[in-house]
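Known limitations

Structure tokens in this collection are predictions and should be treated as such. Users comparing against experimental data should check residue numbering before alignment. To illustrate the layout, the record for 2-succinyl-5-enolpyruvyl-6-hydroxy-3-cyclohexene-1-carboxylate synthase is reproduced below. The input appears on top and the generated tokens appear beneath it.
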Amino acid sequence: MNATGTTNYLWSRHFAAALAGAGLAHVVISPGARSTPLTLAFLRQAGVCCHVLVDERSAAFFALGLAKATELPVALVCTSGSAPAHWLPAVIEADAGRVPLLLLSTDRPAELHGWGANQTVAQAGLFTGFVRAAHALSTPEEGFLPRQVHTLAARLLAECRWPCPGPVHVNLPFREPLLPPAAKLAASPDLGPVHPPEAPPPLVLPAPHAVAQAAARLSGRPGLILAGALPPGSAGPDYARAVAALARALDCPVLAEPLSGLRHGTAGLEADSRPDSHHFLAHGEALVRDAAFVAAQAPAWILRCGDAQVSRSLQTWLSQCLDQGTELLLLEGEGRWPDPERGTTLLLRGDTAATLAALAQAVAAKAPPAWMQAWRAAEQRAGDLARAALDAAGDDLWEGAVVADLLAALPAESRLFWGNSMAVRDGDSFSGLSAKPLEEHGNRGCSGIDGQLSTALGLAAAGSAEGRYSAALLGDLAAHHDLNALAAARELDCLLVVVNNGGGGIFEYLPARALPEYETGWLTPVPLVLAHGAAAYGVPYRRAASRAEFQAAIAEAVATGGPWLVEAVVERSESVARHRAYWQAVSGSES
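Generated tokens:
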């Protein structure tokens, strides 16, 4: 019996040490009995930062945020039974968003399955369809070969990262006793050298003839680049520099979405590669609402890199362009085919930044000068209208002002999480461009409302360790859905802004708004007193009902440091009216 506990712990120590040696830096642990050997091994493993969160669902989204920020796999550990099932929403998001997570669920041994043993469920296939690989291991046996454990660890992290980043599931059964007696545990021998094999991902490039073919389609013709969200590790200075180089070579606009990493300056870039330079545009969503402008500026081609557009207006416009013969060139580096319109003319497989750089070298001619001039003029007009909408509101607080003031208050190099539903859409409309470096994230893989506070706090945990500030903007229903995430906020430098517009404000702009059951079935306002929720977890709180109050609250939060929850109270009917007035103006109906 003692040999079983010793074997469990020794195997776990080798596994944890090999994962650390292969590059694992963060583990998020939810306490439990069956996971004891693995939890203890991680807690005692040098070089691994352990985060302990009781709620498995919050823990999984927290790990998602850590992985987004660090651009490396993050491990999750939990006990057996229903515990790993709570990971599923975050696993679905990690799959769709290409975020590397290592899911380490511990389990009862095989002889207990199927006999009614407590806390025993079929865990091995729990995430089928959402993971890059799944491994159902046997219980550790005495005399195991350490090198095999080390190689397994390296393989698991490699599967998380390539060819398509995402979650990998490992089911780890342990027999009792889970640990050796205390005396043997204290006298555990040194493991000796732990050298897992190295498995760096390759740099994949399109074939030269494919680059030449794409460059020929782009050269000398009017077109534009649609830049959406990329998986962790794909955006950054090399990507921004490559996009800027191609835009200069073609003299074409770049319609940059908030999650593209191309709106707010990246440190170290040359002036003409920064997002506030000539070719980067932030109001694409507004520009395509103007029917006269769209009719006059029909692109011959559109080059899309990253995920599909946040804006429904851009999605509709892209589909209309394809119907009218516009060629769609799609850049994709993870083996998927992200083309909901099914209109691709040419698919280029390869690393996004390297492919863009290759295209910039191969392009032979620019678009006619009038093409870029027209887009720049329209961008200037849309920006002026956005600023006019903010000025017209005065001290009234609405989402456009929340976005503008939050961005102005954040220190350079901050990480910002855009919540789903209206938050990211208002970010698209009103965040503009700036030279101040910011790193922007969101959970747009499957765009769920769950786990948004937890993801933001995972980003903040990485940021605090690096001396970087973090913030999040989300809605009241998202906060209600994930309020217990505030348990992880302690000692983190993060500003959590919750826009309270009395429920699901996004449905004000959707067909459900016309139904008599609208408030009951869609708006669903909740009697949530955020002040009490913040107090329950010891998080400082401020409530703002005017723009002056909001500016003061976020300035206090940034200056003081630590975690803060700021509630921005918005009058929904006035907000809807301001949104509609802005859209009417940019559509050309109020010229």
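For this record: The two ends are 82 Å apart (CA to CA). Residues 499 and 568 are 5 Å apart (CA to CA). Please report discrepancies through the issue tracker.
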